[in-house]
UniProtKB/TrEMBL annotation:
The chain crosses the membrane at residues 6-26, 47-65, 77-100. The keyword NAD does not apply. Gene3D superfamilies: Vaccinia Virus protein VP39. InterPro entries: 23S_rRNA_MeTrnsfrase_RlmA, SAM-dependent_MTases_sf. It comes from Massilimicrobiota timonensis. This is SAM-dependent methyltransferase. Keywords: Membrane, Transmembrane, Transmembrane helix.
Amino acid sequence: MEYLIVLLLIFIGVLFLMQLVFFELTRSKMEKANNINWFLSLDKPFSYNRVGYMVFLCLICYFISSPVELFTLSWFVYFVLFLAMGIVADAVVQYAIMVYSKKRCRRQIEDAHLLQNELQHFSPSTQLENDYTLSSPSYHEEDVLRRYIQSQDHLAVMSVDAGKFASQLKGETEAMFVIEPYTDTQRVQSEFTDDLSVKVTTLTPTGKMPFKDEKIDIVMCQKCNYDKSEIFRVLKKGGYFIVNQHGTENLKEFVRLYMPFQMKGSWDAQNCAQTLESIGMRIVDKFEDYGTIRFHSIQAIYQYFTKVSPDFANVNRYQVFYLQALKEIKEHSYFEMTTHQFLVVAQKMY
């Protein structure tokens, strides 16, 4: 019996040391990442829910190490005893780690609760003045577009901004088609009642562009997806395709927090240009802009996302991000995110 007690204590000691090392590595990683939710999780009451895991682990270990003949009465008796020791040892270690973690991270847990309480009392509003600053862009897409359009051109603008970008170009071409795949076209058309040369349309039911072959002089893609084959089809020979999109690094502080497995590869001016060259288009020009956006309040972050990506403005759903941002604002008076956009001008040569 004494041997079993000693064995159990040794087992607990080894497990505790392993869990302690794992906890310290995780704590260091979470502290560097400003993961407030992880520190909040340390303050939960103890509950043991690893019985199934320990049954599986002990069974594997017992199969490998047991000197007793398989599936005999003695084998079952010793297995039950071994399993009971394993579960007791694991439960003791889990509880000890919980106590240790609360003492070790007491300050971070208290700070996390204060931040969570402040975030819970945050009242979303879009009525306040913008409290964020953008770095100066290295190019302006509307200026680039104007270098290529002529008054007699037929221009197609693809966007998801309810015609906002296209409204800056009213009267500059013979005809302009605004392609809005998600917004009610009648509502957008009402924004152009004073310009009969503008027609608001959408993609066909099969996702194609609503034009005959080689009918458009310039296609402008403003921060939305496109089908390169369709672009090539509708462009006249010598026509231009101008694509302005967000790159891989855009808002990476948010994206990588929630979608870490979607960040393989890179989407930038060079890669975009290569895809257009692959269908026979000539690259005329390209621009790349890496910048920053600096927020001075949670309200400012909410306002910004409400405009550019309404889903991200859900404070409760993305609490991890907003807590991290709030902590940065408290410590440095601002929270900074990366912006990345690029523009490629391509010409159809045949």
